[in-house]
TrEMBL record:
SUPFAM superfamilies: Protein kinase-like (PK-like). PANTHER family: PROTEIN KINASE-LIKE DOMAIN-CONTAINING. It comes from the Bacteria. This is CHK kinase-like domain-containing protein. It comes from Paraglaciecola arctica BSs20135. Pfam families: EcKL.
Length: 339
């Protein structure tokens, strides 16, 4: 039994905030990672509306954390707490400029006390994005790529002091424990160089940071052509291909990755260019595309570095990822040899 910090009376807070004494909880949608709370759906009869409540309720003791892979450390605990605060910052301060091309739920209310936090979010199911997919067709993948491209353009060169200085949940600065237990070898030796190459790229944006298929909501109307996305705990500064690599790896097996690589890379930059036009942003697209294409293999190697430390037998590790890593290490070698 996990002992939790005595919680805010969520129901009372919501009933007061929405001036609806009949407001009630419909059901729990899921528990948060490592037992840090839950996501639930509530309904307000007065407003004739449902909404999603993300309740962050950390375990009282480190030993009571239930990490699926055994990483119950103080470092991991602090990273999770920070990630929830950053997610609140994103929804409060940044999400309002996301439009239908990179849709995210609206923040309706937030409450916090000590380490507890409650986010009240728009119910995307009610907004017409009720479909979740465990497997993606190429058409689905292209919709996800479109969302990523528009999101990346929307936040191109964005100042973001209250988000992660480096986005993605696997970035090196927050994964030193995993690096330490990695088997010795060329990839471990190159970890810092890979990280620096990505972080020091000229063109930076905000990356979602956990752009897996489960975090995308598909429309009820197939003709809509847009997705919505959730879960912004690891949003922060980065190059767009970090999100792209992670999304493709989450959707496709090694055969499909190899088969569709160029088509999907081309699609990303096509959508990126369309988004620049949509948002009337004048920038050196040719230079950005050249830089980010050159970082594609680097981004694969960076994620592979994390997996080899965190879970070396992970199902996402495959020959395509290993080939991209070999390409990345070769490009780093050539780069440093030229210097």
């Amino acid at each position: 039994m996990i002992e939790l910090i005595p919680n805010i009376n969520v129901l009372a807070q919501l009933q007061c905030h929405f001036s609806d004494p009949d407001l009630s909880k419909l059901h729990t949608l899921q528990s948060l990672w490592s037992g840090y709370g839950e996501i639930a759906r509530y309904i307000s009869p007065r407003l004739n509306n449902t909404f999603i409540v993300k309740q962050i309720l950390p375990p009282l003791k480190q030993a009571e954390q239930v990490h699926p892979r055994g990483w119950n450390t103080q470092t991991g605990h602090q990273r999770k707490l920070q990630s929830y605060q950053i997610e609140a910052n994103f929804y409060r301060d940044y999400a309002s400029i996301c439009d239908e091309y990179c849709l995210v739920p609206k923040l309706l209310a937030e409450f916090s006390e000590n380490q507890q936090q409650i986010l009240v979010l728009q119910d995307l199911d009610q907004a017409g994005f009720s479909l979740r997919k465990e497997k993606a067709s190429i058409a689905d993948v292209i919709l996800g790529i479109k969302w990523l491209a528009y999101f990346h353009v929307r936040f191109l060169q964005q100042d973001s002091d209250d988000l992660w200085p480096v986005g993605t949940y696997w970035h090196l600065a927050t994964r030193q424990e995993e690096l330490e237990v990695m088997q010795a070898g060329k990839l471990k030796d190159a970890a810092q160089a890979l990280d620096s190459t990505l972080n020091n790229a000229q063109f930076q944006t905000l990356v979602h940071g956990d752009a897996k298929l489960a975090n995308f909501c598909f429309p009820d109307d197939n003709s809509l052509g847009h997705l919505a996305a959730v879960d912004f705990q690891y949003v922060g500064r980065g190059v767009g291909v970090k999100d792209l690599v992670y999304f493709l790896g989450a959707c496709l097996n090694q055969q499909d990755l190899a088969k569709h690589e160029q088509t999907l890379l081309d699609e990303y930059f096509l959508q990126f260019q369309k988004a620049l036009h949509q948002y009337q942003i004048d920038m050196d697209f040719i230079h950005l595309q050249h830089e980010w294409r050159s970082l594609y293999a680097i981004a694969w190697a960076d994620f592979y570095r994390f997996l080899l430390g965190w879970s070396p037998g992970h199902y996402k590790i495959n020959s395509y990822m290993q080939t991209q890593t070999d390409n990345a290490l070769a490009s780093l070698y050539n780069l440093f040899r030229e210097k």
